[in-house]
Structure formats: structure tokens, C-alpha cells
Amino acid sequence: MPNIKSIRDGSVHLYGQNAAIDRVDRAVRRAFSGLLDTKGKPRLSMLLLGPSGVGKTETAKALAEALYGNRDKVARFNANECATEGGQFKAFGPPRGYLGSDKGGQLTQDVKKFHGHCVILIDEIEKGSQEIFDGLMTGLDEGYFEDASFGERISIENCVLVMTSNILADRDLSELDDTELRTAISGARVTNTRNQSTTPFRPEFMGRIQEVICYDQLKPEDIASIVAHKYQRSIAVNIAVQTKLLMLDLSPIALGYITDQVTGSRFGVRHVDQVLSREIVDRVIDMGDALPADRKCWYVWDYRDGELELINVHKEGIAFLREQRGEDHQTTNDYLLRLSKQLIARAREVQNATPRSVAAKTPQPVGGKPAEPSRYIVR
């Protein structure tokens, strides 16, 4: 049997949702074990339920990387684009002679582009028209999508079909068994674009989906890890490239301040980028000439007197971090040294991908294992 690694082991970072990810891993191992007869059907079909911004889309990307070697091998389509009658033409192609028939369907042609070896991601499936559900049922039953523009059948037998929905996101579904969960979804009503109340998930459709998996709202500590990861892997790198300053990290109090702004947002972790942009990027831009002049020092963001401030680690950072973290001096120093090496290496990678005319010189990268997301206590 093939050795399918966990989707946690790839470059796509998944935080929280341990129970959901365990179920996804188990379903993948079962589907690709060779012990099941999946001929004439997709390798695996899943419906992922949960609020917005809790990791459903990231799961699809992690699946693509684990199964097909590239996180970008995702044929993605938002069913909300086909909410009206005739909207299925955008997914499966308009009939010959109609406007756009020379291009085919967006969904079918994306799957064809990947030669039928990809993750098919249908976002907001509950908002799709009945024709979209009919087309998906054909795929679940027969293992192919039919492009009406070209009259061709595109096999999805080697694909994983992932559908996401936030239906019943306001209910606690954790105590329901699989049958009760499918029954609840089948009876759930949705208001469509014509202000009509419908039940999009018919029992015959739910019966064809192999796995229905619920995602929980993320906990504050999970959001804190995501904030720290996004800052260290993206914002801090860009700051290093543009200003030559090593703003390594967020103090526990600064991290807690930013996390509090994300926690409870109905946009989930998608709000992290906006908050970091507003709190960190705007502050760096506003500082302008007031940015620290010493490019050889390390800096850490702290939250003091109602605003974020830069702390020079070499002058006072180690002492205050040690006090906040409850760690000894050496542990904190080693941690920041590792972050420094990581940041320099990633900044070098970014500059190597930048045209030489606009690239600036950066320090030579230093090797080392990737730093794990910060383990902070959020206050």
C-alpha cells in the first residue's frame, strides 16, 4: 500500500482543528490504500463544514501538496458565482453557439489543465444553483464532468473533490453522529439570491459524499500561532528586505493585542493580514526617517501605552522578554538567534527572486532548521 503522509507534514500550516485533520488524514489513507473500488468515482469526496476562516481552504491546499506534489494543483470554483438559473454555464460551459462557448467551463477546463490529477475545491457549495448540484452528482456517480461547450467528458476519477460550506455554522454539531449530521444538513434551509428559502443539500446528494467533517471555531492560542507565523514568515521578511532592519518578533503582550483584534471576528483568520497591515506595516511606513539607524541590532515589537513600539533587543529586549516569558536568558537569546538566522535566509531568498535592478544587498543566509511558530501566552 502507498505510504500517504499526513497533510500536517507539508508546507501548508494548519493550526487547531486536530480532530478534523485526523479525520481527513484517515479518509485519505483509506481512499488511496488500494483496498477500495473507486472506479467510476472520484478517489475521495468530502464536505467540510465550519465558520469562515477556520482552515477549510488551507486543508484543500495541503491535500494537493500531499497527494499531487504541489499545493497549487487545486481546481477552485466558488458556487456563489452560479447562484442564479443558468449559472452552471460558468462551471460546466455554455452550450455551443452561446457566448463564451469557445472557452468552455471554468471548472471543467481547470480540471483538464491538471490532467485530472488535482483537488477540486467547490467553495460555498450551499449557494450554488440546483444545476450545479446536478453536475456534481454526475461527477460523484460517474467519475466525470461534462463540458457542454466542447461535448467532452473530463475524468475526475483521480481527483479529490472537496466542498466547503458554512451552513449550520451557528450550531454545535460536535455531538451528532454521521447519520444525524447528514440529516441535519439535508433539512437545513438557505435563502437564495431570489430571496427564496431552499434546502440545497438533498438526501440523495448527501448520500453520495464519502466524508462530512466539521471544523470548529479557532481558539485564541491557535490564532496567536497564526499571527506569529504570518508575521515571521512574511511581514518581517519584507521589512528586512526594504529597510535592512531585523524586526524579529512580537512580544507576548504585542501578540496578545493583535490576537484580540482577530479573535471573535466573523472573518476568522482571514482578518489576520488586515490587522497586521494596519498595526505593523502602517506603523513602519509612518516612522519613515524615524526608523532605527542601527542595522546590526535585533528589534522586537512590544505594546506599551496603547501603541506598538520597537524594542532594541541588544539594549533592553532580552531582559523584558525574559520577564514576560518566564524563561531564562539563554533560552530567549537562543530563540531570537534562530529567528535572526531564519529571517536573513528568507530575506535572501526573496531578493534572489527580485530583479537585480531593484534588489538590495542582504547578509549571507545562515543555515538552520525552520523556527516553529511562537509558543506565547496570550494576555
From TrEMBL:
The keyword Lipid metabolism does not apply. Residues 42-187 form the AAA+ ATPase domain. This is Negative regulator of genetic competence MecB/ClpC. The keyword ATP-binding applies. Residues 354-379 are annotated as: Disordered. It comes from Acidithiobacillus caldus (strain SM-1). InterPro entries: AAA+_ATPase (IPR003593), ATPase_AAA_core (IPR003959), ClpA/B (IPR001270), ClpA_ClpB (IPR050130), P-loop_NTPase (IPR027417). CDD domains: RecA-like_ClpB_Hsp104-like. Keywords: ATP-binding, Nucleotide-binding, Plasmid. It comes from the Bacteria. One of its GO terms (biological process) is cellular response to heat. GO terms for cellular component: cytoplasm. GO terms for molecular function: ATP binding; ATP hydrolysis activity. It holds the Pfam family AAA_2.
